[in-house]
């Protein structure tokens, strides 16, 4: 066995981002008034969408356009947005937060959570397949995807409802064991260090994440996630059902033939705590005692996600389609989660989320509709190579370009991390975006302005 594959830790699919949630409209010099169009490329999860919605002011409306690298990532974005929009009458805010985080960051889930996932998948199938021109929900708009991409989404959602085996060839064998899939990745990554994995986990936490300011991530929780893929255990329960939303296919060469294997191919090093669990506006959650944080990244994630859900319902929520249809009728019992349909989800005033085809980025400049259209453009670290000069044609005057840096990609050393930031600056400059220095620049995102 080798000493391990360094590049394997981050995985080949982005289930969560390598940076905390940001209100993207607050990252430039001036907030745009009126309708704001934001383009997200490869963000991997809806953290920025939820945080940006929470920061919206009364006179602002928001349209987020999303491009991902795979339909599995689109499917998960749709799932997480669906959960965020669940009405409080059918799922209380505490439980909704727990289920959201469980599906977001756990390799294995509880049976109750699986029921919620399956019902959501069945509703998303209807949303994707039965709407050709008009979206069933403005925040789950897939009408601009290609027919084959919608077919792929339907296939993925059906897999969540009825799991299949690990290879495309063995349809009759047992469903994938997530615990085995996770352990396979850990073994591949660590190689000969596998037998001393506890020490490897501790090193990555204390010498890397903690030194990068992630002191809220506790040793016990991080070690459990590294070993089993369980990041969030907020309730007493049995977490042993595979979370199918974290499975995807990866093509390998086998004796000259290409074979697709379903398994866990995401991050196994940096952790899902980065998205919601390492920062908080509530300073009371950041208190320390004897040099140790009292709260953990799990606690912070829960508080942050719950606050985002609170802002969704209080500041932007409005009656659902079902509620409007039955307004004049006799009061009816509130729906439980198993009877919730797309029409029962919260409707957010002035907010839309539209998913674009995977290959659409370089086609947008060819369409008049998107000419000088986007006020904010966001690139994840894994998609920086797609940033080119054509971005100028779709960027509005005074547009803000935000690029995720490599700070939390743990397998890069300090020199590589700095080299990545310089490369980003160079690519942005070639595309005629200049750095914006506001005195508050961080090493998590680079911010640029259109020249």
Automatic annotation (TrEMBL):
User: What GO terms fall under cellular component here?
Assistant: dynein axonemal particle
Q: Which UniProt keywords apply?
A: Cilium biogenesis/degradation, Cytoplasm
> Which PANTHER family does the record cross-reference, listed alphabetically?
DYNEIN ASSEMBLY FACTOR 3, AXONEMAL, DYNEIN AXONEMAL ASSEMBLY FACTOR 3
Q: Domain Dynein assembly factor 3 C-terminal: where?
A: 140-437
Residue ranges of domain DUF4470 in the record: 15-109
* Similarity remark: Belongs to the DNAAF3 family.
InterPro entries referenced in this protein's UniProt entry, alphabetically:
DNAAF3, DNAAF3_C, DUF4470
Q: Which organism is it from?
A: Larimichthys crocea (Large yellow croaker)
- Region Disordered, residue ranges: 316-338
Q: Matching Pfam families, A to Z?
A: DUF4470 (PF14737), DUF4471 (PF14740)
Kindly list the places in or outside the cell where this protein is found, as annotated in its UniProt entry: Dynein axonemal particle
Q: What does this protein do?
A: Required for the assembly of axonemal inner and outer dynein arms. Involved in preassembly of dyneins into complexes before their transport into cilia.
Question: What is this protein called in UniProt?
Answer: Dynein axonemal assembly factor 3
- One annotated GO biological process: axonemal dynein complex assembly
Polar residues bias spans? 316-325
């Amino acid at each position: 066995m080798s000493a391990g594959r360094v590049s394997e830790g981050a995985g080949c699919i982005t289930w969560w981002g390598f940076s905390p949630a940001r209100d993207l409209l607050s990252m430039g010099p001036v907030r745009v008034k009126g309708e704001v169009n934001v383009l997200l490329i490869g963000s991997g999860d809806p953290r920025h969408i939820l945080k940006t919605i929470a920061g919206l002011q009364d006179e602002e409306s928001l349209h987020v356009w999303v491009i991902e690298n795979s339909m599995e990532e689109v499917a998960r974005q749709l799932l997480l947005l669906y959960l965020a929009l669940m009405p409080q009458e059918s799922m209380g805010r505490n439980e909704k937060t727990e289920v959201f985080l469980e599906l977001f960051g756990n390799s294995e889930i509880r049976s109750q959570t699986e029921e919620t996932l399956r019902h959501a998948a069945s509703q998303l199938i209807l949303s994707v397949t039965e709407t050709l021109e008009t979206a069933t929900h403005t925040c789950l708009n897939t009408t601009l995807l290609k027919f084959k991409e919608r077919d792929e989404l339907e296939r993925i959602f059906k897999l969540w409802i009825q799991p299949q085996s690990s290879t495309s060839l063995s349809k009759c064998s047992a469903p994938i064991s997530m615990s085995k899939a996770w352990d396979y990745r850990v073994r591949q990554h660590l190689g000969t260090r596998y037998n001393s994995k506890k020490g490897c986990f501790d090193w990555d936490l204390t010498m890397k994440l903690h030194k990068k300011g992630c002191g809220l991530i506790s040793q016990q929780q991080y070690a459990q996630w590294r070993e089993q893929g369980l990041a969030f255990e907020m309730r007493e329960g049995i977490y042993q059902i595979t979370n199918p939303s974290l499975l995807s296919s990866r093509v390998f060469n086998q004796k000259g033939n290409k074979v697709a294997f379903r398994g866990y191919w995401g991050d196994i090093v940096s952790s899902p705590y980065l998205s919601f669990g390492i920062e908080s506006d509530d300073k009371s959650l950041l208190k320390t005692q004897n040099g140790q944080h009292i709260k953990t990244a799990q606690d912070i994630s829960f508080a942050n996600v719950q606050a985002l859900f609170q802002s969704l319902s209080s500041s932007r929520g409005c009656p659902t389609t079902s509620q409007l249809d039955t307004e004049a009728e006799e009061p009816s019992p509130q729906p439980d989660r198993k009877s919730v349909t797309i029409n029962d989800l919260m409707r957010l005033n002035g907010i839309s989320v539209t998913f674009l085809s995977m290959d659409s980025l370089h086609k947008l400049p060819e369409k008049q509709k998107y000419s000088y259209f986007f006020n904010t453009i966001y690139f994840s670290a894994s998609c920086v190579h797609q940033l080119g000069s054509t971005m100028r044609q779709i960027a509005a005057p005074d547009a803000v370009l935000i690029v995720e840096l490599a700070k939390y990609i743990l397998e890069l050393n300090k020199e590589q991390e700095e080299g990545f930031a310089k490369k980003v600056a160079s690519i942005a400059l070639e595309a005629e975006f200049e750095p914006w220095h506001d005195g508050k620049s961080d090493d998590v995102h680079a911010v640029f302005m259109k020249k």
